[in-house]
Design brief:
Elements (H helix, E strand, L loop, with lengths): L2 H22 L3 H21 L3 H25 L4 H5 L4 H23 L9 H6 L9 H9 L1 H19 L10 E2 L10 H23 L7 H17 L11 H24 L11 H25 L2 E3 L7
Antiparallel strand pairs: 1-2
Helix pairs in contact: 1-2, 2-3, 3-10, 3-12, 7-8, 8-11, 8-12, 9-10, 10-12, 11-12
Length: about 325
């Protein structure tokens, strides 16, 4: 047995054990920490499968923003922890276990029943990759061959933030999402935010820009930028913008809006909706990605901040 195979077997065993422990453990905070660690290990699995783009997304969302969201939820549910430990009953636990087992069996069966080799459009995508001028095949597929799906994903993000905002009480509508965070200006968290935020912003921009030719892209870069924004907010160095801000709303619709405009231009002047003329394909895609990274970073940050809770008063440190 090679060292690589032994490492993969050990990684799979740790993943299964950590996933089981996250489900079984009773404390909310411990389960959240286990879930974040699980997400980071899954990112390592994707690296072993040579899917670097998926690994970056999993690390940013599963281990980063998802962890922040669950930690915030755990803090809000701290008072309900004793009640949560008294439930659910044995019947509900058995039903959940049976449903999980059936789902896992169905997924395993679907994988085993796939024809060998599995049907794929990879050859067609590679043969036509020249039309966009992008060297990264993942970005090529996302922005050209399945551009409609990519555009609708950003529309779903905007609809999600509208749904979250709709939960705001009447007195806070138009105000700032989430509570105001107060932290010691000379404390460890503020120091960490001042140290990591500039580096994280540079890394996020690099991950976004290199996505045209290497693993990365708008979603991964936007998730990193959102994480740095949230870190600054939690350290008390920044605040969320009021939802009544016109600048904020323009940023939220910039990504899907520009995507739609380019798509309609392809319908009017090209061969089909979202068709790019080969000489302009790369500049158009990069322009869409610039707008999308702003939309993604802002939307993810606001989704984690939650609904407006306070008036749009001026904010000072």
């Amino acid at each position: 047995m090679s060292i690589a195979t032994a490492f993969e077997i050990m990684l799979a065993a740790v993943l299964l054990g950590l996933g089981t422990w996250t489900i079984v453990v009773r404390e909310t905070f411990a389960a959240t920490v286990g879930f974040v660690a699980y997400g980071l290990l899954v990112a390592l699995v994707w690296v072993r499968l040579d899917a670097a783009d998926v690994a970056l997304t999993e690390a940013a969302i599963g281990g980063g923003l998802g962890g922040v969201l669950l930690l915030g939820a755990a803090a809000r549910l701290r008072d309900a922890e004793p009640m949560a430990q008294a439930a659910p009953g044995k019947l509900l636990r058995a039903s959940a276990a049976a449903l999980s087992t059936l789902t896992a069996a169905a997924l395993a069966g679907a994988i085993l029943l796939l024809p060998d080799p599995a049907p794929s459009l990879a050859r067609a995508a590679v043969a036509n990759a020249w039309a966009t001028g992008l060297s990264n095949p993942v970005t090529n597929v996302l922005m050209a061959f399945r551009a409609m799906d990519t555009m609708l994903e950003k529309v779903v993000l905007v609809l999600a933030i509208v749904g979250v905002w709709s939960l705001a009480p009447d007195f806070a509508w138009g105000g700032r999402p989430g509570p105001r965070h107060q932290a010691d200006r000379h404390g460890v968290l503020a120091f960490l935010a001042r140290l990591l935020s500039p580096v994280g912003i540079v890394v996020g921009i690099y991950v976004f820009w290199t996505g045209a030719n290497h693993p990365g892209g708008a979603f991964q870069g936007g998730a990193i930028l959102a994480s740095m924004w949230l870190l600054a907010i939690m350290a008390g160095l920044a605040d969320t913008l009021p939802v009544s801000s016109r600048r904020l709303r323009l940023i939220l619709v910039a990504g899907p809006g520009l995507f739609l405009v380019v798509g309609l231009a392809g319908l009017l002047f090209g061969a089909a909706f979202l068709s790019y003329p080969p000489p302009l394909a790369k500049p158009l895609i990069l322009g869409i990605e610039v707008a999308m990274v702003l939309t993604i970073a802002t939307t993810l940050g606001l989704l984690l901040a939650g609904a407006p809770e306070r008036n749009a008063e001026p904010w000072t440190l």
